[in-house]
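FORM 12-B: Structure-to-Sequence Request
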């Protein structure tokens, strides 16, 4: 019998890190073989299950990502852009699947991921849930069906600890809307309105951001015309939906040709 893929979780103590540890440790499709945190973190050296306040999982938290990756078949990484760039180099060196949930990359940081994708499978998505990935497909279709009489606005809400805006999901949805319309998002994107902005420009895709409390993640794509509005909405109430998607991606990526993939590839949508 072939062994189940061994998976390392980076950012092990984070909101997503802990959800991923639980999801992988409880899965029949993969094994938890590593947990990585940043140098100096109080969890380093502890059993990750115990550090999370539960039973031992037999995996010590380490800051040595390169070593952890060398003993694994995949890494699931929900951390921060600079950390993810380092992890991409280590994953490429080890030739393991790198599932990237991290958001907030600049264009140049996304460019810097490309060399790693020549040596390893990278699956990256601003949102790993089935629901949001289906929503991107619907958004593309609706945007293609409607003309610029319909103003497109993407509205996202998240918890008060989120550090990037607009969310990775909002940008994915904006990209899908732009693709549907056959325009470049960079040419029509309207972010951060404030003050005397002037009237809305026809054809723009607007972004609005709400931050508060413990909101897991909510996204609306609004198509607003004179006399009617269509609103496509996704509400995540549990981070488990992201963790499940990420685990699916890590298993799916085994044996695939190196390159950059997304959750549409994984889910076959
Ligand atoms: N694609 C998706 O489906 C989702 C993406 N996210 C994204 O995942 C990222 C993390 O989100 P949260 O878990 O809420 O954040 P968080 O702040 O709770 O966790 C981030 C973790 O990464 C760790 N970290 C940072 N730099 C590190 C390094 N160099 N080495 C090792 N660990 C390092 C931190 O210590 C922390 O434990 C964000 O970019 C967020 O937008 C979050 C949820 C779903
Ligand atoms: O930071 C979060 O929490 C989330 N981030 C992702 C994003 O930026 O879209 C996905 C999800 O909405 C939760």
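FORM 12-B RESPONSE
SEQUENCE OUT:
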């Amino acid at each position: 019998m072939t062994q189940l893929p061994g998976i390392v979780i980076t950012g092990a103590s984070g909101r997503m890190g802990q959800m991923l540890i639980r999801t992988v440790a409880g899965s029949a499709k993969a094994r938890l073989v590593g947990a990585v945190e940043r140098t100096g973190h109080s969890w380093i050296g502890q059993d990750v299950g115990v550090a999370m306040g539960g039973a031992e999982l037999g995996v010590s938290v380490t800051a040595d990502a390169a070593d952890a990756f060398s003993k694994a078949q995949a890494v699931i990484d929900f951390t921060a852009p600079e950390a993810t760039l380092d992890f991409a180099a280590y994953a490429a060196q080890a030739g393991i699947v790198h599932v990237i949930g991290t958001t907030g990359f600049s264009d140049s940081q996304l460019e810097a991921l490309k060399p790693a994708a020549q040596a390893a499978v990278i699956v990256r998505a601003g949102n790993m849930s089935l629901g949001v990935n289906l929503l991107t497909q619907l958004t593309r279709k609706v945007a293609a069906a409607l003309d610029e009489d319909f103003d497109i606005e993407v509205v996202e809400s998240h918890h008060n600890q989120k550090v990037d805006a607009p969310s990775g999901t909002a940008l994915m949805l904006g990209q899908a809307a732009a693709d549907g319309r056959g325009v470049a998002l960079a040419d029509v994107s309207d972010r951060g309105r404030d003050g005397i902005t002037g009237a809305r420009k026809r054809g723009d895709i607007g972004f609005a951001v709400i931050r508060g409390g413990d909101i897991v993640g909510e996204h609306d794509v609004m198509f607003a015309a004179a006399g009617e509005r269509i609103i496509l909405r996704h509400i995540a109430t549990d981070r488990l939906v992201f963790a499940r998607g990420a685990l699916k991606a890590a298993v799916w990526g085994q044996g695939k040709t190196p390159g950059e993939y997304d959750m549409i590839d994984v889910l076959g949508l």
